Amino acid sequence: MSVRNILLKNSLICFLTVGAVHAQNKTATWLTTNFQARSFASPVTMVYRLYVPVGYTPTKKYPIVVALHGIGERGNNNVNQLTLEELVQPWVRDSVQAKFPHFVMVPQCPANLYWWPSNTWDGTRSTPNIGIVQILDSLKKEFSLDTTRFYVTGLSMGGFGAIELMKWNPTLFAAAVPAAGGGDTAASTIAQFVRTPVWFFHSANDPTVNVDRGSRMLVSKMEARLGKPFVRFVSDTGMTNPIAISVDSLRKAVYVDGANFLYSEVRNAPGTGNALHQAGWFAAWRHPMLTDWVFSKQKIGGVTVSLNRTTATRALAMPNVRLTFRYGVLLIEKSVPGNISNFYTLDGKPYHRVTPRP
């Protein structure tokens, strides 16, 4: 097969995978039915939605994802932050909940407030930001939550909010996914940011949150603080035509290397105006590796641990073993005599392909 055909094949696989993920989206009716409508009164009254995983039992510990909306979804109707911009879609897809049963908490920022203080970085903390952590504290008392696996994500204003939560709570969240956002770039703040694994997403032509003053600047400053580069993946929409690392290299970074710091930038997104702003978070929500990366992170005693990394790395060091992408997932392949291959998941378990029902 020619190099050109290989590239076309990989691009098609990426496109189909992203499209399949998007096809699993829930309807607005499903979301409003399956997310509990709740309210919390301190330090400012804030409504929120809560998804409780199917089959929840107090005898198990469950992760929780905090999802933060953008500026246009502020208010108190307790609906817009849930149904718009695909904010919660990655977390409630059937395939994701089956693999990683978890809670999803979606607060709604009151009108005229922000997820950060007064739209500035003045060393204070916004009341909605404080409220998010207080809601989590209340949920820990009500449900059996795995406090080593709290995650935060957000779009636009919510991307800023996710970053702000990293600043004020460096030991709380095991991973963060800010999309089309930005934040405080003071040296003291950057020192806090690098304590939380993060995967930034941004559109190269974002007209609302300039990429140079947003994600690129934060990534650059965090790289300087870490003393090593982020994993950078720059491509057109649908993960096609990457110009930084290849898709396979990104898979290796996510599934084998246990990378803690990644940056994905979307170039040549279609449309103009707000569509170019949205491209940053749609790239995140529709990314086929996003949820696997998020749920591989665990924070114990304020220090992040990447789950499954040790088993996969040890396996790949063995003879006749390689990493392969089969049946839509990344697997460990071990060759045995007779030209036969056995396949294992990245945590070392035998892989049994499940054929979908017609």
| Widest sheet: strand ordering | 1-2-4-3-5-6-7-9-8
Give the fraction of residues assigned to helices: 25-40%
* Rg computed from alpha carbons, rounded to a whole number of angstroms: 20 Å
The largest β sheet comes out as: 9 strands, mixed
| Spans where pLDDT lies below 50 across 5 or more residues | 1-13
CA-based shape: globular
Mean pLDDT: 88
Distance between the termini: 32 Å
Q: Which band does the percent of strand residues land in?
A: 15-25%
Which structural traits does this protein have?
single chain, 358 residues, 3-stranded antiparallel sheet, globular, disordered N terminus
Task: Provide a descriptive summary of the structure in words.
By secondary structure, the protein is α/β, with parallel strands linked by helices. 35% of the residues lie in helices and 23% in strands. The chain has 13 helices and 14 strands. The protein has a nine-stranded mixed beta sheet, sandwiched between helices. Strands 12-13-14 form a three-stranded antiparallel beta sheet. Helix 7 (157-168) packs across helix 8 (187-193) and helix 8 crosses helix 9. It is globular. Residues 1-13 have low confidence and may be disordered.
